[in-house]
Task: structure prediction
Amino acid sequence: MGERARFLKQLEEWGAELAKSALSLREPVMEIPARTLGNTVWDERARMLKLGPEKIRRRFLDVKESRRFMQTVLMLSLIVEAMRADVFPTIRDLYYNGKHTIVFKDPLGRVHRENTWDEQAESNGVIEDIEVATNILREEMGVSADVKGKVVGPIVVRSQGYELDASKFGETALSLPVNVDALEIIKVEASYVLVIEKDAIFQRLVREKFWSQENAVLITAKGMPDRATRRFVKRLNEEYKLPVYVLTDGDPYGIYIYSVYKSGSIKLSYESERLATPNAKFLGVAPLDIERYKIPDQFVIKATDRDVKRAQELLKYPWFQNDVWRKELEYFLKSKKKVEIEALSAHGLKYLHDYIKDKIKNNKFID
Result:
């Protein structure tokens, strides 16, 4: 039995178990690990966020839970149907496929209308519930979302029988697929991986052939990383022992993006072991780099209240408790200054290259 067939069987068995309870006039109940802040724990040894042991019992006859129960069963049936037909829907497809209005009359003859779900956030949440309840990831179910990841550098992969060399795409890049575990990495001859927050900076470094000069793999997810990009970065670090450096804007949002690559996110803590790269290093731009690299005032931006609030939240994270990170974040809160990566161009358009090389070669990154 293939892997996809095994996952299908597991989902079918879960659905059959719920149906058997209903047909035996027993209340169907789902047991699902709680995806809550209170059930998200910091694993000091693994250096990542993980889901704790708390579980919720979603009961069909509980008025507060019945709608979510029925949404879960509906989504489960849509996914099973797609897997049986060997098709690969997007999360958007499943949202539209399952969205309809149920019309019914109560005992007094009044007509009621109830949508299966109103927003895609609802149906997405149900997919995540199914993932944690069955321990089968949506990628393994053949369900996809938008993948933003792009890769350039000395790496060759095989996808559906085709060999793709990420060093031969000119000014474009290799786009990552939904399930990067199905991507066979044939050859990697890089010294390190540079993850870049912004697509504009990624494109610039590609055009300037920075990856070739440094023998590096460049990766971007154009902002907040998607699951496929995070998984690919982790594979390069774990399977090929490549150092991973993350380059972001010098603000709390950029530091948070680094945090997601390194330690995982609260929302997807159940996936951290598959997605997080605890060995990732923060290259910059760090708050104190404004002083270290003498960035002129005209390139410095005043922080917003939202920036300040995010920095205060970051200071509470367990992995930002060391002296180096506290010093950086406290400087930000005191100065209320931030900069974009582009601010380094104040010292010349090629200075970004020097900055990255200086940080890596002289161990000026932050763990």
Summary: The longest strand covers residues 29-33. The domain at 150-361 is CATH 3.40.1360.10 (Dna Topoisomerase Vi A Subunit; Chain: A, domain 2). Residues 99 and 155 are 42 Å apart (CA to CA).
